[in-house]
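Hi U.,

Before I forget, here's the chain from the pilot set. I'm dumping it here mostly so it's searchable later in email.
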Amino acid sequence: MGIVSDAPHSDAVPPPGSVAAVPRRMRLVCAVVAAVIVAVMVVAARALSSSHGVVTYHLSDQYGLAALGLLLGVGVLLLGRSRVDADAAGVRIRNIAVSHEFPWQAVRAVHFDRKSSWASLVLENQDEVAVLAIQAVDKERAVRAVQGLRRLHAAARAKDPKPPPLLY
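Structure:
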């Protein structure tokens, strides 16, 4: 998870660049768990002998068990595919199975409370969208990513026209 700024370094506050974040620790855990699942299933497939009492196993059963292990491993790896990319135009979120794209005008706030496991976006219509790519276990990387999202949000919303005053 890192923040990339396109602006040159100067004493003035640079305009916000872009933010890209992935859940590093979750990806590592998912990779280890997937490898263990595949290894266990392959060992179990090789351990199947041609017959165990009343049940007779064939080579296709061994291949099927190994293939099932590969499918389960891929499924576990998909849990770590979350990603968030943001720039001045808006934010793109890819969670486990769903992707979202929002312009900054649709986002009311970027939340990441102390007790939250991951960040979230509060939308103008009061919906809340989880940002699984920014997780508390990533500590400083998560904080930098949230700060970058908040800077981009503030810069985009500063350009919004001011609403007229209420007349009642």
